[in-house]
Amino acid sequence: MEKAYINGEKLAVQDESCYDRIKELKAIDETKAGVKGIADAGLLNIPRVFIRPPEELAEEENLLLVAKSKFHVPMIDLEDMENRRKEIVNEIRLASASWGFFQLLNHGIPETVMDGMILGVARFHEQDTEVKKQFYTREFTRKVQYTTNFDWYQTKTAKWKDSFMCSMLSPDLIDPEELPAICRDIMLEYTEHVRILGNTLIELLSEALGIGKDHLIRMGCTNLSVLGNYYPACPQPKLTMGSYKHTDSSFFTLLIQDNIGGLQVLYQNHWVDVKPKHGAIVVNIGDLLQLISNGKFKSAEHRVLANQVGPRVSVASFFSTSSVMKSAKVYNKDLISDEDETDLPVCSNVRVPDYLKHYIKHNNSEGNDGVHSLSHFKF
């Protein structure tokens, strides 16, 4: 029987006869050291709360879902946009409709800033636990939240990652003093670049849908949250996941990742690697954009594999609607043509608060069967 300690505190043992899942969850949670604390303890076997059920592992072994395939995530170059705008808009339309994922090159964010942001996230997670734990919380109304697994007590299997989330623009810029000092300056600099790129992409996506450039802006999709993910090296990566299959609840997400990899998108029943390319930004369509586009754009399911090397670091910037819980807007009818009788609603009338309530319940539920979160609203 292996004894596990984090910061001198003993974790629940792995004895089948007396295993207490809640006790183990609480023991890890109370250390406030996250998954990194477990990794630093040098265990050869990961705690049971991270191990996927045997039937799930066996099922995946038999599925014809392969990461290495003939498919490649679209790469879109924004260079010379003034002269190539129609071409770029068309490429975004095709990628958003078929994949829901693409990578951007020549997007305007300096590589030095992107590299600095990756390093800043790593520094936050790798600083002394006593300093870091002041941000540890499960009160998700805070503008700055650090935790291991936001859904720690809800899901049946924990994810091998730690995260910190900052509500940067909601709609006003966060007070800089609320940000962690160790990465404050780079977060502010990176957010400004992401805001500019996000506004450009909002226009391009609107044009790709055949609507006015300011349509999505008027719908209030400029609320910006930044999520800094840290995936420690895992001694048993095949038994767990960095992130399980999910979609994003946002309009769209901009993501940067280091060179380790592990991000995969589900495309034509294949798990396709989103291969890291230095200087590229990954874009994925979220559920809200699939809703308002009446299914023309796809909110793609994706996941992150655990890895024996690491740590892996990624930074996701979510563009969502501000004051969503007060919103009464019905989104899915906005892009349905009154002239085209075949252009029928894909989903029932969905209000943002109702959708978000279902999304949280669906993705945090132990009974989540892997069905797309929007399936609940389809006719």
From TrEMBL:
Every copy of the Fe2OG dioxygenase domain together lies at 222-322
**Which Pfam families does this entry report, sorted A to Z?**
2OG-FeII_Oxy (PF03171), DIOX_N (PF14226)
Q: Which InterPro entries match?
A: DIOX_N, IPNS-like_FE2OG_OXY, IPNS-like_sf, Oxoglu/Fe-dep_dioxygenase_dom
Q: Which domain of life is it from?
A: Eukaryota
- What residue range is the signal peptide? none
Query: Is the Oxidoreductase keyword given for this protein?
Result: yes
**What keywords appear on the UniProt entry?**
Iron, Metal-binding, Oxidoreductase
Give the family per the record: Belongs to the iron/ascorbate-dependent oxidoreductase family.
- Name of the protein in its database record: Fe2OG dioxygenase domain-containing protein
* Source organism (scientific name): Papaver atlanticum
Taxonomy, top ranks, is: Eukaryota, Viridiplantae, Streptophyta, Embryophyta, Tracheophyta
